[in-house]
Amino acid sequence: MKEIVIISGKGGTGKTSVTAAFAVLGGSSIVVADCDVDAADMHLLLQPVVKKEEDFYSGFGAVIDYNKCVSCGLCANICRYHALSWEDGKYKVSGLACEGCGYCARVCPSEAISMVELNVGKLFISDTKVDSIMVHARLRSGADNSGKLVAKVKQEARQIAEATAKEFVVVDGSPGIGCPVVSSLSGADFVVLVTEPTVSGLHDLKRVSELVAKFHIPAGCIINKADINHAVTQKVESFLSQNNIVHIGNLPYDETFTKAMTIGQTIIEYQDEDLAALLKANWEQIKQLSTKERT
Amino acid sequence: MKIAFTAKGTGWDSAIDPRLGRTEYILLYDEDKDTLSAIDNRDIEGVAHGAGTKTAQLLYEMNPDILITGNGPGNNAASVLKQTSMKIYVGAGDMTAKSAYDAYKKNELKEF
Amino acid sequence: MKVTIASGKGGTGKTTLSTNLAMYMAQQQAVVLCDLDVEEPNSGLFIQGKQIHQQKKFKRIPQWNKAACILCGNCQEVCNFHAVLKLGERVMVFPELCHSCYACSELCPVNALPMQPIPMGELKHSAAGKLSFVDARLDIGQEQAVPLIAQTLDYVDSKFDSTFLKLYDAPPGTSCPVIEATKSADLVLLITEPTPFGLHDLKLTIDTMRELKKDFAVIINRYGIGNDDVLTYCAAEGIKVLAKLPNERKIAELYSRGELIYPQVPEFAKQLKLIADFIVSKQRHSA
């Protein structure tokens, strides 16, 4: 079983549309994991039917037991996040401001504060419309994605893939360059970078590929909307060859992607033969690259 | 020589866990005594951030001569392990502990 | 007046809108545009001005004083983020993991972990005519956006009085950085695309705005592609749709080169005026 992770750094490059197309091409031979939990949109294209769901806990928040609280105000004094304030005759915790450091709980003289694990969202295991299993999650509003949540989504997907002898786990990775994307990359056999030829796209590609290189994971790149700016596309291509990243292929700027998405379909189902052929070729190449022995 | 592995189980036939920070088990093989022991690291699943440093600290305390893993440590974990003389070999993510050990003996693993 | 421009998902045109709106409105009044997307601040690529100030921004982290330390391990015990570790005879601090909560420092029995400033990013302030521009960029390897966003907001508050219209370009998403970027705003403009992805992420952002009790309105980008579901949803929820920015390939091309849109795309300019007029009417109302 091989794990293929698709990431982009910058938002709006078409990463999810491309990933969903691969998920359709892979069909029942793969398990899909959506780790882009801040903007978890892949379910809109794969229309999963939820088979199993569970609450997900991550991080901590302070909770005050008013039977014990003596209103001394020490907690509010030491909190650097201004998460504790005097309101309506008592000290209250602002859930949005609390970072879960636990300092207040440690110093409270009457042991009135406890740190409780936060329910940040739900984890789902579902059947997709293409006869594959998908693991995905939904965060509560204001909750942060974390390495822990990403690791959990991936682990569930890997376990299912191993138990049912699937060939691939295809992961829609987290954006940015922080902890969740590190966790998305961890354990991957191959990384696909989806970028666009814009000044910001190139900038973000460089940042995220530094991270990939650090993990010694072989990588390839798809340049989406490649025809929108040939000069920048050339810059992206030369960056790829200098950094030992396989240039998997280019996709044109094409509103068909959006049209297909609007009716809940991937490009493969939308019957645009040219685009579908490009994506098929990309997917075949990615499969080959990910199963190649590492040198 | 003491050799540690990041692994998904407790025996020689367990798969290597390619992750360092979030590895499920750490196996420790003592070549002189020919004994294999396992440390359960599955509590790490509950850690939201900083799994890398936490597991690296455990490895620091175990202090093996060699560590065999998959992807290799991230920046923070690497700076913890730098405090030791431990040599780290990566690229064993697809192997079992046994085959990773054989590959290491044949000099087939890459040093981090 | 403070106006924050936000979006649920990335790549919906947030930077395009904020840079064009700022330049457009600065033809009439004093405007400061502040890019709070500190992980990937891209607004600066579209605005040419003269730099007038630049400063490093710092966060405070504990620094180990070996001579004072008695190796009791309390610091490691109290750190919930695994940012302080006792390794044998030494204590290591991991700046990227540290949330600057001060617990290890203030609970150390021998004061061996005093808090010291370390650089986390850089703030830049430039000006072009009536437009001032402030952005901040996290240093590579720094992960926590919120402290830098907070300091950048403080900087803008201290340098620009209420005669300035303040526009903030927020980071994408609905998590802590976005909340920090919107919490002092008088008005939040939510930009989205008329697609299922756009609508899904818009709903999440609207939930967050309602939780924060914010005054907000929606702007649809790439109008004409996709479907009418965003319009239908907003109508049903009683949410004002301020403008519909057109869907044109030319806009994508101009953006890819880092150029302004409204001088070259008339329909875009027309829609931008609707937004500007709305902001001006709000300003009059609050004055």
Written overview of the protein:
- The complex is a heterotrimer of chains A (295), B (112) and C (287).
- Chain A has 295 residues and is α/β, with parallel strands linked by helices.
- In chain A, 37% of the residues lie in helices and 26% in strands.
- Chain A contains eleven helices and eleven strands.
- In chain A, the strands form two sheets. In chain A, strands 3-6-7-2-8-1-9-10-11 form a nine-stranded mixed beta sheet, sandwiched between helices. In chain A, strands 4-5 form a two-stranded antiparallel ribbon.
- Chain B is an alpha/beta fold.
- In chain B, helix 1 (51-62) packs parallel to helix 2.
- Chain B is globular.
- Chain C has 287 residues and is α/β, with parallel strands linked by helices.
- In chain C, 34% of the residues lie in helices and 27% in strands.
- Chain C is built from nine helices and eleven strands.
- Chain C has helices spanning 14-25, 74-78, 103-107, 145-159, 176-182, 196-211, 229-237, 249-256, 266-286, and strands at residues 2-6, 31-35, 50-62, 84-87, 90-93, 115-128, 131-138, 165-169, 187-192, 216-223, 241-246.
- In chain C, the strands form two sheets. Chain C has a nine-stranded mixed beta sheet with strand order 3-6-7-2-8-1-9-10-11, sandwiched between helices.
- In chain C, helix 1 crosses helix 9 (266-286) and helix 4 (145-159) packs parallel to helix 5 (176-182).
- In chain C, 51% of the residues are buried.
- The mean pLDDT of chain C is 93.
- Chains in contact: A-B, A-C, B-C.
Give the gist of this structure.
The complex is a heterotrimer of chains A (295), B (112) and C (287). With 112 residues, chain B is of the alpha/beta class. Chain B has helices spanning 51-62, 75-81, 97-105, and strands at 2-7, 25-30, 35-40, 66-68, 87-90, 110-111.
